[in-house]
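Support reply, case 0932

Customer input (verbatim):
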Amino acid sequence: MLQLFIGLRGWSIAASMLLLLAVTALLQSLPPWRMDLTEDKLYTLSSGSKALLAGLQEPVSLSLYFSRSLAAELPHINDYARRIGDLLAEYRALNPDRINLQVVDPSPFSEAEDAAVAAGLRGAPLALGGDALYLGLVASSASGGTEVISFFNPERERFLEYDISQLLYRLQRPEPPVVGLLSGVQMSGGYDFGSGQMRTPWTVLEQLQESLAVRELQPPLQRIEPDIGVLLIVQPAELDQRSLYAIDQYVLGGGGAMVFVDPHSEIATAPAAGSDSNIDTLLQHWGVEYQRDQIVTDRQRGLRVSASAAAVPLPHVGILGLSASDMNRDDIITAELENINLASAGALAPRDNASTRFAPLLSSSSDAMLMASATYLGAADPGELLANFVSDNRSYVLAARVRGPASSAFTAAPAAADSSSETQPAPQIEPHRSTGNINVLLVADVDLLSDRLWVQVSDFFGQRVVVPWANNGDFVLNAVENLSGSGALSSLRSRGQYSRPFEVVDRLRSTAAAEFKQQEQVLLQRLEELEARIASLSADTDEQGQLLLSDAQRAEIEAFEQQRLATRKQLRQVQRQLNRSIDELENRLRWINMALLPALLLLAMFAVLGWRRHRAGL
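Our regenerated output:
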C-alpha cells in the first residue's frame, strides 16, 4: 500500500512538472501584456498620444541619455529616469514599427557625452568643477529632422507625456504654425495717432513672432484661411456679419482660438479699440456669459499703488496680481506659472444648459466684487475704489478654456461683403457648419498683453532690453503653443503625481500658514494705520529736516512698536506650533510602521497557527 502511495505521488509530481512546463511554454508564445494598477494610470498613454503615434509617417529614433554611473548615489534621479524609460517603452510598444528606442549612458569624456553635447543636451553639474549628469532625450526622424529635450526637469514630471508627445509632434511638423491676429488695439507698433508718437511692437507679439508665423488679419473677413493654426482675437471693434461668420465657422471646424475681451481696456488709445465689439454673440453660442459693463475688483489681489509721491500705497482693487493659487494647476498652460497681472478685467461664467465644458484657468480670490464700469471709471484714486468695495464673498473666473460641442450663431452664410461688386467675383463659400467641437481660450482682459503689466523695457547702448517681472507673456505663449498642436496634442492630460503627497502634513501646514497669514495681515494693517497717522501730522520740521512730534505722538509710536514686537512673538509661536504638530505626527507614524504593523502581523500569524492546531485536535 505504501509503495502504491509513493508511486502515485511520484506520478503526480511528474504530471505537475509537465503541466508547469506546458503553461510556461504557452505564456511565452502569447503576446506580452501589462496591467497599470496605479491610481492615476501613470504608465498608460492617453488617447491623444495613441492617436499621435498611430499617425507617424516615418520612423523615429529616440535616444534617452542618462548618466547612470554618476547617478548611483542619487536614488530620486534613478527612480525618475526609470519612470521616463518605462514611459518611453510604452511609446515604442504602441508603434514598434515606427519607434526605435535606445538608452545611452554618456560617461565622462566618452564619445557618447560628445554626442549628447553636440545634440544640444544640457548636463547638470553634480559638484563645482565636477562631472555633468545628463538626463535628456534626442529624437531624430528618417528625413533628418531632430528635436531634443535638453534635460528632464523633475518639477515637470506631471507633464512627461505632454513633453514627449509634443517632441514627436514637432518632429513630424517642422514648419512653424501660422497664427492669425485679428486685433482692435495697436499691438504691432507704428505711429500712434492718439499720442502723436512712434510706438514699438508689444513684447508679447515679438515673442510670438520668434517661434511662430504671425499673419495680421484685417476685417472685413470673407473666411479664415485653412493654413491658420491658431486664431488670436484681441478686443476687435464692431465686426460685420461676414467676419463674425468666418470666425464662427473656423472655430466650429476645429480651429483653435484665443479671444481677449475687456470691459475697459486701459491700454487702448485708438477709437477702434473701444468696448463696442459684437463678438458677444459668438461667446453666447460657445456657452459663455460675459458682462462687459462689470469689472472684477479684488481686495486681496490688488497691487499696491500710490496716487501721488507723498501718498501711502494702497491696494488698487482693479489692478490684480494673481499668484499660483489663483491658476489652474492641472492645465498645462498655467501649471507652472507663478504670477500674472491684469487690469480692469471682466468676469466669465458658463451659461445655463451649455453643451460645452467650461474650465477656469485664472480666477480671482474669494474677496472679490463685481463693480459697475461707471463706478470704477468715476473713481478718482485707489482709495475711493477701496471705499466703494463691498466683497461678494465669491471668486470670479477671469480666463477659461471652453471645449466640446457647440452650435453656430448663424442659420446660413450671410452675403459676402463684396458680393455686389461687378469687377470682383464672389468668394467661394464653404458648406455651412451648424455644429462642431470647439477648442477656445477666453480671457476677459486685454491689458495683460501690454508691456506695462509684465515687462520692464530699457535701452542698453542702443539695444532694447526686455526683462519680464511677471508671467503674462508665458501664459500667452503656452496657450498659443497648446492650441497650435494637433487635436491629439491639445487634448493631452497632465500626468498624475508619481510621488504620493503627505496630505495630513499638508493640511497642518495649510492651517498654520493661514493663521500666520492672518496675523501678518493684522500687522500690515497696523503699519498702514501708523503711516497714515504719521502722514497726517504737522509738517513742521527742525533744522535737520526731522518731523517735530509731540510727546503724545511719540508715546503712540512707542506703543505701536511694542504691539509689533508682541505680534512677531505670536508669529514665532505659530511657527513653533506648526513644527510641533508635524513632529508629533511623524513620531506616531514611525511607531506605527516600526511597532504596530509588525505586532499585528505576528498576532495574525499566531491566530492562524492556533486555528490550525485547534482543527488538528478536533
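We compared this against your earlier run and they match. Two observations from our side: Residues 63 and 102 are 5 Å apart (CA to CA). The two ends are 27 Å apart (CA to CA). Please reopen the case if you see a mismatch on your end.
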